[in-house]
Every structure is written in C-alpha cells, then in structure tokens.
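User: My collaborator sent over this chain with a note saying "see what the structure looks like." That's all I know about it. Can you take a look?
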Amino acid sequence: MVLEQQSLPLPQLSSLPPQPPQLFSSLLLSSSNYIQWSGFIKTILSAYNLEDHILQDPPIKSNPPFKEWQKKDNQVFVHLLLSLDEVHKSMVACSPNAKALWDHLSALYGQTNNIGRVFELRRQMADMRKDNKTLPQLFGEFGNLWSELEVLRPPTTDPTEIIKRQNEDKVFSLLMTLGDSILNYEIGNSENAKYLS
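Assistant: Without extra context I'll predict from the sequence alone. Here is the result:
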C-alpha cells in the first residue's frame, strides 16, 4: 500500500501573532543582569519591528497614527513589565509609555562606568568552580560574565583609562581577599576605625 504524501499549508505571515511572544518572561531583570536582559529585550523587539518604542520618543497625540502607535506601545509596555521581577515592576509600573519605562531602567543599571558591577563580575569569575557543571556549561557561564565585563570595560588604548583600570584592579584584588568578612567589619571599634579614615 502506497501512502500519499500530503503537504501541510504554511502559515501566512498575517496569521502570526501581532505582538512579541511570551519570550519576555523567560529572562527576568534583576539588579545584576541588566546588560544581558536589555540585549535580550532589544533582540525580541527588533524581530517584531517594535524597537522604536523603547528608542524613540512617542509621536504627537494629534497625529492620526498616534492611536495605532499607542496600541502597539501598550503591548510593548505590558511585555516589558512581564520581564521584570516584582521589585522592578513596582518601580516603573506608572511610567507613561514603554520608552519612559526603558529609560528609567537604563538610568538605574545602564551606566557603563558601574564600578560596583565590574567588581561583582570579577569576583564571580574568580569564585567560579566546576563542581557538577559540564565543561560547556562552565565555559558558557564564564563567557556570559566576560561579555558583560567587556560591555562595562571595553578594550581601550587610552593611557589614562589603562592606569585607572589597573588601580581599580588592585583594589578589586585586595577586596576579594577579604571575602565576606568586609561585611562584618566593625566600624565602631577604635582599632578598626583608624584604617577607615
């Protein structure tokens, strides 16, 4: 018996969902993953040709296409909210549009001179252990940290910046030797206070 091969109809482009899928909630923003999160969100929005909602100012309300823009902007806004943890949702829920929400988070976490985050990345890389991870998992984790570090500290040939980074790295190295004990440092102790002044 010969079976006839049937071909299934391909979906028409117009039948695809008009807004971005639930991909937004697969990576939630936290205080330590802004660069990774923002790149992920920009990629999704770009795929749906909606990145202008976070990169450009809204059109004037009196323009005829404003209503259509506002509908799409509300969709982007909701999807952005879905990609935030509860703390961040409460910070930006009253933003007037998607761009205002995006700008607020960018101002909080998007500074490329975020020295605290640079230290945290260095510390995480220094503390990495293979444990039960496979080698590809370990390389992937390290690669993600390194990529974020390169965004915060891109390669430079500026001598002043190189010296600044060398000095920061010295401080980082010293702080990493202290471990968590720095958090328990007793400032009130007169013996310790002389080192902090």
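A starting point for your reply to your collaborator: The two ends are 91 Å apart (CA to CA).
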